[in-house]
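User: Can you help me understand a structure? I only have the sequence.
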Amino acid sequence: MRLEITKDSLIDAIQHVLKAVSTNNPIAILTGIHIEATTKGLIVTASNSSMKIQYTIAQDDRCMKVQRAGGIVVPARYFHEVIRKLDAGAITIEQLEPFILTIVSGHSRIRLSGMDPAEFPVTTTSSTSLLKLSVNNATLKTSIKQVAAAASTSETRPVLTGIHLVCQNEWLSLAATDGIRLASFSIPMDRQADLDADIIIPSRNLMEVARLLDEETARTEIEIGHHYICFRVGQVQLQSVLLEGVYPLIKNFIPTSYLTEIVVDTSLFLRAVERATVFASESVIRIAAAANQLDLLSRTAEIGEVHEAIPLQQISGDPFEIAVNGKFLIDLLRFMDSGYLRLRFTGQRSPIMIHPADDWSSALFLITPVRTTGQGVTTNERA
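Assistant: Let's start by predicting it. Here is the structure, written out as tokens:
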């Protein structure tokens, strides 16, 4: 293997795939980065037990030129540090001895011991996919960020650490819940899917997908296989394993009626919740709606209290007061892409329903109330 490449091109590829490197993995090969030079360009790949990220740099006389094909796996940490600290300009990478990579840049010459590329996990090819679809980057990024906040971080129920993806006819739907919060988002597709899909994806892997989606007008190609899902975004390909198990039926959590509905400015509401949560004992805040005003209250003994009041755009139904976990509510509101929201009160022990005011069909958020006692002890009632 021998190639010439600019430092900027190489460091960009390395930084993309580093997110999939297992620094403490007992399998040594997974602590490395796989480098493969082909007649078409350079392919840089990293993998762990859950996710694989691949970055492709096309053959280009200006930025990168492959002179001899070949491959090697190099220690990710050292390779990244060495390349990062080289001077700007051209870098020559060459393999003259088995599993030894030589890096030359200016007056610097580095020999880096590597590993056998044959031991690196093979990338799943598109020939094994069951379903292929394409989604706008901006829409996909919004849906992932809004839904991922509700996924569980506890391994007690592994399926709840994932995001439930359902592809049916012309809709792609994502949903997540930790038993206290629930978020769902539906994306219309340009065409009907050839096959239905019902899978669970680790939420942390989908968040890495969201971080790749910078070009909002571009599209992400998605492939779903028996045990994997693959996202292709420009030069990057991210492949994730699927979680095994049956996801809870989301519609069973959604109340079928409500007692009161209010419409409030999303930004005002979020900032008020953030301020109220600062002084909230165990993050619990009280929300009270009456007339044309929404009050938020919190307190912690010997620290202080907060009272926030924001105007309501609309209210229908009876006044209500309820306690919720402010931090959980912030997580749901932070990525809501709507100027106003509709909040529906469904009862003291039933989840609060939150919709974007301008779009009823695409997004839904639920948060269950906190039951407070006279002694100030709080408990969550799971959905």
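Now, to help you interpret it: The chain has three domains: 2-119, 132-251, 254-380. Residues 266-278 form the longest helix (13 residues). Let me know which part you'd like to focus on.
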